[in-house]
Write the structure tokens for this entry.
Amino acid sequence: MSGGQDDLLVSVEGVYKHFPIRQGIVFKREIARVHAVDGVDLQVRRGETLGIVGESGCGKSTLARCITGLHPVTRGRILFEGADITGLSKAGLKAFRRDVQMIFQDPYGSLNPRRRVGSIIGDPFAIHGLADGADRKRRVQELMELVGLNPEHYNRFPAEFSGGQRQRIGVARALALRPKLIVCDEPVSALDVSIQAQVINLLNDLQGELGLTYVFIAHDLSVVRHVSDRVAVMYLGRVVESADGEDLYRAPRHPYAAALLSAASVADPDEAERAERIVLIGDVPSPVDPRRAAASTPAARRRASAASARTPSSSPARATRRPTPPPATSRWSRASASPAGRP
Ligand SMILES: Nc1ncnc2c1ncn2[C@@H]1O[C@H](COP(=O)(O)OP(=O)(O)OP(=O)(O)O)[C@@H](O)[C@H]1O
Ligand SMILES: [Mg+2]
């Protein structure tokens, strides 16, 4: 990959997404804000897979929805092929969605159970007025074949498919308009391990075949390692580290990234025995008006570990009462991996 400006497909620049919390029966006034995405800068290059990992609630899905234009951003810019998509009109968004599609986590909830699979996969053709009648059916059946579904099952309902097959339906629907970017929001989390591998291999093959670019969100760090060229680690609405996949796994620079990676399961039992497990104690601070301490720099980390050696770690309850809890530094401790020490 050359890394030039032409390679850049998406550029997320200083993006914030806050959700207001309102109170009141008649006059609803804003009493606080959830800082779901809190100043993210991110770049996605053509043809690559950018993995996004992070704790539950750190803003991965919200960021994904901002990138696909499903959420308007509170502040910042998102450039797709150099054009800002944050202020697009309805018509502009419709055109943009031909290029950017999303695959959702829940293969059960994301498909309408009352509609036949052929009609679900054919939706993008109908919405964009691209094909109808026999032409649409032919194109849908081609897509079904491409993702490994039997085209003869065109008239079946989602309930007649297994979880993995349903996710293939979601993939086929996302591919219908031949998008340039697919944002996969935990596409395999709801699936059985053996089926996960099938869907991941399918996504990999399609990337090679169709030249797709992926943003791949997952909880499972081994999955992210397997699929991603680069990985961004999110914490409390921010990207705290972004690096080439293997570099990140070899030498994470941010303490939260190190803790997250140390929790990944290792297939080799000898390596697992040697691995150092960093145990997080307490909860992540609330994203509602978080008054964060300075980002966890290595210096802050050293200061914090010196402090935690002097004082016992705070309990989650105490941590939530503290007005400015330093994010994931002072409440961390290291423990060598042992079966008993594992969660
Ligand atoms: N529509 C919404 N209205 C208000 N708050 C929201 C909304 N969507 C998300 N949030 C809040 O924003 C924060 C980030 O949520 P998000 O779904 O992006 O997290 P996530 O990283 O995808 O988590 P998970 O890994 O569990 O899917 C959470 O605190 C969540 O409660
Ligand atoms: Mg999510």
